[in-house]
Amino acid sequence: MGRIVHFGLGNFARAHLLDYTSDAGGWDVIGVSLRSTSARDGLAPQHFNYTLNVQGKGLKSIQVLVDILVASEGPEAILGAMHCADIISATVTEKGYHLGADNKLDLRDPAIISDLNGNPLQTLIGFIAHHLAARCSPVTILSCDNRVENGTRLQQAVASFAQAAGLKINWDNVRFPNAMVDRITPATTDAIRVSSADPMAVPTEAFREWVLEDNFAAPRPNWPDVQFVQDVRPHELRKLRILNGAHSFLAYAGLAQGYSYVHEAIADPYMRRRTKQLMMEAGATLPSDMRDQVPDYANALLVRFGNVELAHRLDQIAMDGSQKLPYRFLETLRAGRGPIVAEAVRSWMEFCRVQTDQGRALNDPKALDIARAVRSKNPKIALLEVIGGADLAALILG
Ligand code: CS2
User: 183 C-alpha to center of ligand 1: Å?
Assistant: First the structure.
């Protein structure tokens, strides 16, 4: 039996990595929650089994999870579990990597400083660096978060942490494959809990996709339907700039129009036209061998976004904009012009202004910087500075 230790037990991991691993068979997963005890408290009474409510396909019982450890209750058990793992994977969302706008580990981040100061570990980066410094056998570290070159960036962050902490890592034994992950997975609602007869059920769409760099140090599950490639980057760019870019545009522009869900915003003819235009602008920045696929990819996304039953909330997507905009919009703009992509950045600015003016704290790790920027003399430039986009001021602000 192979073993994965997975950091971040949110709905996405439970609908993606754990679903694929359940299909593969022969592997189990120990989950790690960095802070919250809610996944452990909810799943422990049901032996860590849960129901995937796959829209249009029915209920599927997932039984690969064997335990969940919570970092805030003591890191030793987690470091111990990591020693027996062939794969250490993560879905800790963009902010869980503690990277600055330059994509490098932010050594001024309070959680990173705390880990460097020898306090009980609280970050993915700290755990991996300490683990690798003590590890002799081969291991694969697998990032499954939305970031361009997610594996490479994670490795760089772990290397900077190790250097700052004076830890020595033998890099020969470890691989950090890059990955493109895709499955739209909204938050669980009471209706889903009831219809699945499971308080921990996870709703998801039938579609799922995983493109992985074929770069493993140790055995891996025989995951079905995974595309193994030498270079994931074109796949990542396609998904992050088109799907996630369109999602963020729909979120900021859609909330401003009074919509609550993705399917509502995409049903509005004006929003639909602009979203499709954004997809085409983003598609034009992709490597040439990907560009032919863009119209089909965009049309398929419009169908996925129109899925009424999925009830995907726009405010869920609007969260953590400071972490998402750089790869969803800014890199697209640097790679080519894009009037709707520029408009999407302006929608985020307007969202930040309205939330701040109404006295609502943003759900974003940079919430304080954003509020300060909104109240500054030149709010638009200050907001671009928060997300590392000041170089694009002329293009975005016109
Ligand atoms: C969404 C993603 O919340 C968001 O920011 O854009 O979670 C999106 O649903 C997934 O990346 C789809 O694979």
Answer: 8
How far is Cα 64 from Cα 361, in angstroms, rounded to an integer? 38
Domain that holds residue 308: 237-397
What number does the ligand 1 atom closest to the CA of 324 have?
A: 5
Give me ligand 1 centre to Cα 202, in Å.
Answer: 15
Residues 247, 213 share a domain: no
Atom of ligand 1 nearest to the CA of 183: 13
Look at residues 199, 231, 263 and tell me which one is the last residue of a structural domain: 231
Which of 188, 184, 189, 123 minimizes the C-alpha distance to 154?
Answer: 123
Domain end (from 181, 210, 231)? 231
Q: Are residues 254 and 346 in the same domain?
A: yes
- Per residue of the chain (398 residues), what is the pLDDT tens digit? 999 999 999 999 999 999 999 999 999 999 999 999 999 999 999 999 999 999 999 999 999 999 999 999 999 999 999 999 999 999 999 999 999 988 999 999 999 999 999 999 999 999 999 999 999 999 999 999 999 999 999 999 999 999 999 999 999 999 999 999 999 999 999 999 999 999 999 999 999 999 999 999 999 999 999 999 999 999 999 999 999 999 999 999 999 999 999 999 999 999 999 999 999 999 999 999 999 999 999 999 999 999 999 999 999 999 999 999 999 999 999 999 899 999 999 999 999 999 999 999 899 999 999 999 999 999 999 999 999 999 999 999 98
The number of helix segments (H) and strand segments (E) in the chain equals 21, 12
Is residue 316 in contact with ligand 1, taking CB distance under 6 Å? yes
Q: Report d(CA 353, CA 370) in Å as an integer.
A: 9
Q: Which atom, in ligand 1's list, is nearest to the CA of 185? A: 9
**Ligand 1 pocket test, candidate residues 148, 241, 317, most atoms within 8 A of CB:** 317
Token representation of residue 49? 């089994």
